[in-house]
Amino acid sequence: MDPSIIVDVTGNLNTIGYGLAAIGPGIGVGIVAGKTVEAMARQPELAGRLQVTMFLGIAFAELLAFIGVALFFLG
Amino acid sequence: MTVTAVLKKALVWGAVLAVVIAVGAAIIGNAVAGGVGVTSAIVGAAMGLLFLAITAFSILFANRFQANPLYPTLFMAVVLGAWMLKFVVFLVLILLLRDQPWIDPTVLGGTLIVTAIATVIVDSVVVLRGRVPVTQLPTAPAESRDDS
């Protein structure tokens, strides 16, 4: 190996990108779902509205992960 | 409009839009990569729809356990479990599809992104238009007597 190269990464870098793309949405979806369950436990009669809002929140958070998946193909 | 109605409407309109995108992307894919582009566009639109529909399905499924005392726990388990399962399934799918000879990765990736953005827009419009009422569930008479 060339002594000027400190780290030599081989393999498919897209897989690492996919993993990185899943971190943020994973945290986001976890918070959204967790907070919805918390709110439903406090006010069960509001469950309907909370779930619809959660659906929207998850859809937006997932979009980033989804683009990460698609970049796997584009990269 | 109930949650079920909103989610079903989002699913139906998402499916309609995915078909429209599949047709449009197939035409573009055919121009760019021939027959391989057409299959890639259809697979891409189907993956995009499936990816975003699983969330709605998981909520619909979780709501079947509404009467269960463990409903909040089950709800979270089903929704987050479906999310995780979806990611594992898609990781396997993209690893399998990437090197297939009948797939053009650029057309597939482009269709996935377009479908994802379009489906989120449809979800937003449906959710914003679907007026879910704030309803106080009436307590059953027998239950209220027990409380007093």
Automatic annotation (TrEMBL), chain A:
PROSITE patterns: ATPASE_C. Residues 16-74 form the V-ATPase proteolipid subunit C-like domain. GO terms for cellular component: plasma membrane; proton-transporting ATP synthase complex; proton-transporting two-sector ATPase complex, proton-transporting domain. It is a multi-pass membrane protein. The chain crosses the membrane at residues 15-33, 54-74. Gene3D superfamilies: F1F0 ATP synthase subunit C. The keyword Membrane applies. Its main location: membrane. InterPro entries: ATP_synth_csu_bac/chlpt, ATP_synth_F0_csu, ATP_synth_F0_csu_DDCD_BS, ATP_synth_F0_csu_sf, ATPase_proteolipid_c-like_dom, F/V-ATP_Csub_sf. This is ATP synthase subunit c. It comes from Labedella endophytica.
UniProtKB/TrEMBL annotation, chain B:
The chain crosses the membrane at residues 12-32, 38-62, 74-96, 108-128. Keywords: Membrane, Transmembrane, Transmembrane helix. It comes from the Bacteria. This is Uncharacterized protein.
